[in-house]
């Protein structure tokens, strides 16, 4: 049932070109007689025995045939020998009324133009030549046909407007059998067309959500995504045409690109060498000085002697971007938190000219091996490779780095062409897990930055995902939790990040971050944000400002007090005492502030709460309060859609470890007691 | 991470000296800061003092590499150079050999060098000396030990072994996992 409808629709959509074709064809069948008639006329003229007046007659003929020409073309092609005959005949006819003919032909031309407009011009003068009459008749026919064609076109448009939408259930049933790709493709196009001008083209009985549902199902089956991811992409690209472009781009591979290692070789020399090896390379883009694109190669790109000697690294153009945004300076202390396989890390080292220190970290040991190999191959000797969790750096080296690159682990929705399994393997759980980790990492990264470093204090956050939950939402979360601000990335290309996405509103400065799409920039989907740390306090911006205010008020109060004391007290000894007291007070306050700065934000109010009478159940109260808080947090996390910026992080459940109830020593029977007992037994036996 | 013991130092320096001779001193007395050798998990790393201090803040287990790894001590306490040391061997090498383009690949696949593959060789190379292998475009490809001196190899037939393979750049691909 549904299929039949669709076919109709398909026909309707295609009808536009077809109808015009028909319009061309039909007159041919009707106008078949025309050449024959012409022949007869010509024959008559020949009998009259008139002398030929070639040019003029020809001219007349041309004018005459003009309208017919298009219509008659096919037919004419069939019997062109006849046509040739006609022409011959014409050449011989009426030369006697030469002058008359001349005027006539001119008139004829004019008349013709008239006839095109209203078709009645010829009826006025009765003494027309029969040929002209015929041509007039043809004109009429043509006009009629044009009208018909137009009507048909109108009809088609009407048909299109009433495109009938199948229900979701119907589509699902269709999927169970073998889906017809042609029909699905057609339906996608139709639905997108309807959605493009929804008010006029919709079926009033169907709602927009129904249309969108159908579109989603079709796109999923056409491109092989799961429902969740397709929904996300549809949110990201509300424009249907762009969405299709994006999905198409996800199936096409990006060009192979390499980065010349500026520690060892210049790009120009490298290009020359590679061309000699039989590779076809070109500078990749005008915004990079080290990128080369490989069009085709007769040798494996990853195994040339140049590659082994560390003259270049195979990496996507997108991975040049975060390093360019980071802009490391020679002598900096730089951390690359998730660095495997070392492409970006070696790029950083190249920009630092092998000076300063560069920490390359990755959480996976196996991938760390690749870092070591690549860094040594590329001649980087200022790097420390370590295999730690990213969160550790905040503990190991708090405020210990000038610049940090965090290329966070992500769902990989920007590089689907590399790994098609992303299309189906990601669900909301996966993405939630990812952005939870990303939040932990970005907090830890910012905490290990040094805000007071002379030319640093920058964090670059990047992902190869296009989802907003993993990008803007994470950065926004950081902005709310820590005292930092976004700064321009300094990249010339890219789309600005979202400040508003659906019903979520982010900090307006998020427009300074950059997004990259495969269909726009022909590089992998990517996101880059550059953040400057403003103070080393582990507090939000507001808390920092409040603290500063408090400080200022305290200072002013102290000044006042001091002034009052000076006024009231005259004796020098007492003054000393007061100053001492003040000093003590100051130091106490300082301690308190330090505590406040160190403690996490959430504990702040607890910390400052009076804790004088511990025996009075204050501890129990505190415990209860904390339990309530934790419960509320967990509840909030349950409904996390990736945009909560309160900063509640879902606690990953640790797998319960098996613990034997027998103590280890007892199990091994090497405990002091057991040995003693055994010894006793042995001794007893001996005796 | 710890400084090398006396024994280890002599082993490492003897090995290095077989390739770069007296230039070993250039590795220690550098005018761009203090450099040092460190033993970490039976591997010898060569790096600047500053970098070494910074690396010390990471505990033993997760610290995988710092600076440049020169080689490792085997279980029998011999010192083996690794391909990663090439960066420091190549510029100071005493004895060098240049390969013909078609022999390049043979060497990069881990094979010894025959006389037919050699385009040039440093004069006065003795037998069993450390020798660094270059391509014709002066890109260091690896190193090995000379099986025949320059004089001997001139007289040898084209299929005779001249350089015994020790390390080559192909190892970055072949056994990346053994580099640390």
Tell me the radius of gyration of chain B. Answer: 17 Å
Low-confidence stretches of chain A: 1-124, 572-592, 594-611
Mean pLDDT of chain A: 76
CATH first level of the domain at 326-538 in chain A: Alpha Beta
Q: Report the oligomer.
A: heterodimer
Organism (chain A): Caenorhabditis brenneri (Nematode worm)
Domain SAM-dependent MTase RsmB/NOP-type (chain A): 246-534
Family (chain A): Belongs to the class I-like SAM-binding methyltransferase superfamily. RsmB/NOP family.
GO molecular function (chain A): RNA binding; rRNA (cytosine-C5-)-methyltransferase activity
Question: Which key features would you list for this structure?
Answer:
heterodimer, A: about 675 residues, alpha/beta, Rossmann fold, four-stranded antiparallel sheet, about 55% helix, disordered N terminus, B: about 180 residues, Nuclear Transport Factor 2, Chain: A, Archaeosine Trna-guanine Transglycosylase, Chain: A, domain 4, six-stranded mixed sheet, five-stranded antiparallel sheet, 7 helices, PUA (chain B), ribosome biogenesis (chain B)
Report on this model:
The complex is a heterodimer of chains A (687) and B (180). Chain A is an alpha/beta fold. Among the domains of chain A are: 2-160, no CATH class; 326-538, 3-Layer(aba) Sandwich (Rossmann fold), CATH 3.40.50. In chain A, the strands form three sheets. In chain A, strands 5, 6, 7, 8, 9, 10, 11, 14 and 15 form a nine-stranded mixed β-sheet that branches. In chain A, strands 2-3-1-4 form a four-stranded antiparallel β-sheet, covered by helices on one side. In chain A, strand 2 (279-283) and strand 3 (291-297) form a beta hairpin. In chain A, helix 9 runs antiparallel to helix 11 and helix 11 crosses helix 12 (227-236). Chain A starts with a helix and ends with a helix. Residues 1-124, 572-592 and 594-611 of chain A have low confidence and may be disordered. Chain B is of the alpha+beta class and 180 residues long. Chain B has two domains: 2-88, Nuclear Transport Factor 2, Chain: A, CATH 3.10.450; 93-174, Archaeosine Trna-guanine Transglycosylase, Chain: A, domain 4 (Roll), CATH 2.30.130. Chain B has seven helices and twelve strands. Chain B has helices spanning 6-20, 24-28, 49-55, 86-89, 101-108, 150-155, 171-174; strands spanning 2-3, 35-40, 43-48, 63-66, 68-73, 79-81, 96-99, 113-114, 118-121, 130-134, 140-146, 161-168. The chains are: A alpha/beta (687), B alpha+beta (180). At the A-B interface, helix 15, helix 18 and strand 7 of A face helix 3 and strand 4 of B. Strand 7 of chain A pairs antiparallel with strand 4 (63-66) of chain B, so a sheet runs across the interface.
């Amino acid at each position: 049932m549904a299929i039949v409808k669709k076919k109709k629709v398909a026909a309707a959509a295609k009808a536009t070109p077809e109808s015009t074709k028909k319009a061309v064809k039909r007159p041919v069948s009707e106008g078949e007689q025309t050449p024959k008639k012409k022949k007869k006329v010509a024959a008559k003229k020949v009998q009259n025995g008139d002398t030929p007046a070639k040019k003029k007659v020809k001219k007349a003929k041309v004018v005459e045939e003009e309208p017919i020409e298009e219509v008659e073309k096919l037919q004419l092609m069939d019997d062109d020998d006849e046509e040739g005959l006609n022409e011959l005949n014409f050449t011989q006819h009426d030369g006697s009324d030469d002058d008359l003919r001349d005027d006539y032909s001119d008139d004829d031309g004019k008349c013709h133009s008239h006839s095109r407009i209203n078709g009645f011009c010829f009826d006025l003068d009765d003494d027309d030549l029969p040929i002209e009459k015929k041509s007039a008749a043809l004109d009429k026919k043509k006009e009629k046909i044009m009208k018909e064609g137009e009507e048909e076109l109108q009809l088609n448009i009407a048909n299109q407007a009433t495109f009938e939408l199948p229900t979701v259930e119907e589509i699902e049933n269709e999927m169970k059998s073998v889906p017809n790709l042609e029909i699905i493709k057609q339906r996608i196009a139709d639905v997108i067309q309807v959605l493009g001008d929804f008010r006029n083209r919709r079926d009033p009985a169907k709602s927009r959500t129904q249309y969108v549902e159908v579109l989603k199902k079709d796109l999923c089956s056409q491109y092989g995504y799961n429902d969740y991811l397709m929904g996300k992409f549809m949110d990201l690209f509300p424009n249907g045409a762009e969405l299709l472009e994006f999905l198409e781009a996800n199936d096409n591979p990006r060009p192979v690109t390499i980065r010349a290692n500026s520690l060892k070789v210049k790009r120009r020399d490298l290009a020359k060498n590679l061309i000699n090896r039989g590779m076809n390379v070109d500078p990749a883009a005008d915004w990079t000085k080290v990128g080369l694109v490989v069009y085709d190669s007769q040798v494996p790109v990853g195994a040339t002697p140049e590659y082994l000697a560390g003259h270049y690294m195979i990496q996507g153009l997108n991975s040049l971007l975060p390093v360019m945004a980071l802009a490391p300076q020679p002598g900096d202390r730089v951390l690359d938190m998730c660095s495997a396989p070392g492409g970006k890390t070696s790029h950083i080292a190249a920009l630092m000219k092998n000076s300063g220190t560069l920490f390359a970290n990755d959480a996976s040991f196996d991938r760390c091996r690749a870092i070591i190999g690549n860094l040594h191959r590329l001649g980087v000797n200022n790097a420390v490779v370590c295999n730690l969790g990213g969160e550790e750096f905040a503990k190991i080296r708090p405020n210990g780095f000038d610049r940090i690159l965090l290329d966070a682990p992500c769902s990989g929705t920007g590089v689907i062409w590399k790994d098609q399994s992303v299309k189906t393997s990601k669900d909301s759980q996966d993405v939630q897990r990812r952005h939870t980790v990303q939040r932990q990492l970005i907090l830890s990264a910012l905490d290990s930055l040094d805000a007071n470093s002379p030319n640093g204090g920058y964090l670059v956050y990047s992902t190869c995902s296009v989802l907003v939950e993993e990008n803007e939402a994470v950065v926004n979360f950081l902005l709310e939790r820590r005292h930092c601000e976004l700064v321009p990335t300094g990249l010339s290309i890219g789309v600005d990040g979202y400040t508003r996405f659906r019903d979520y509103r982010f900090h307006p400065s998020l427009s300074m971050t950059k997004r990259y799409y495969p269909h726009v920039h022909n590089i992998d989907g990517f996101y880059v944000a550059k953040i400057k740390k403003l103070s080393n306090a582990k507090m939000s911006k507001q808390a920092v400002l409040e603290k500063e205010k408090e400080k200022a008020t305290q200072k002013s109060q102290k000044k006042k007090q001091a002034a009052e004391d000076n006024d009231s007290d005259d004796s020098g000894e007492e003054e000393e005492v007061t100053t001492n007291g003040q000093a003590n007070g100051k130091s106490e306050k300082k301690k308190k502030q330090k505590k406040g700065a160190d403690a996490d934000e959430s504990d702040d109010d607890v910390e400052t709460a009076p804790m004088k009478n511990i025996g009075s159940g204050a501890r129990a109260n505190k415990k209860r309060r904390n339990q309530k808080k934790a419960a509320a947090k967990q509840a909030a996390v349950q409904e996390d859609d990736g945009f909560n910026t309160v900063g509640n992080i879902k606690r990953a459940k640790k797998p319960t470890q098996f613990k034997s109830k027998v103590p280890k020593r007892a199990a091994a029977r090497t405990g002091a007691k057991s040995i003693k007992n055994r010894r006793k037994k042995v001794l007893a036996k001996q005796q | 991470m710890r400084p090398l013991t006396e024994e280890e130092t002599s082993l490492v320096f003897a090995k290095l000296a077989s390739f770069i001779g007296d230039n070993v001193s250039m590795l220690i007395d550098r005018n761009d800061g203090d450099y040092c050798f460190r033993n970490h998990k039976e591997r010898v790393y060569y790096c600047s003092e500053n970098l070494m201090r910074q690396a010390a803040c990471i505990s033993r287990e997760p610290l995988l590499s710092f600076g440049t790894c020169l080689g490792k001590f085997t279980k029998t306490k011999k010192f083996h150079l690794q391909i990663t040391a090439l960066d420091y061997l190549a510029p100071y090498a005493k004895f060098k050999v240049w390969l013909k383009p078609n022999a390049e690949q043979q060497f990069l696949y881990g094979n010894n060098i025959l006389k037919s593959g050699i385009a040039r060789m440093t004069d006065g190379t003795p037998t069993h000396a450390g020798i660094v292998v270059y391509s014709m475009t002066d890109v260091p490809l690896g190193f090995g030990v000379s099986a025949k001196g320059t004089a001997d190899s001139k007289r040898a037939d084209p299929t005779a072994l001249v350089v015994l393979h020790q390390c080559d750049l192909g190892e970055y691909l072949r056994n990346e996992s053994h580099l640390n």
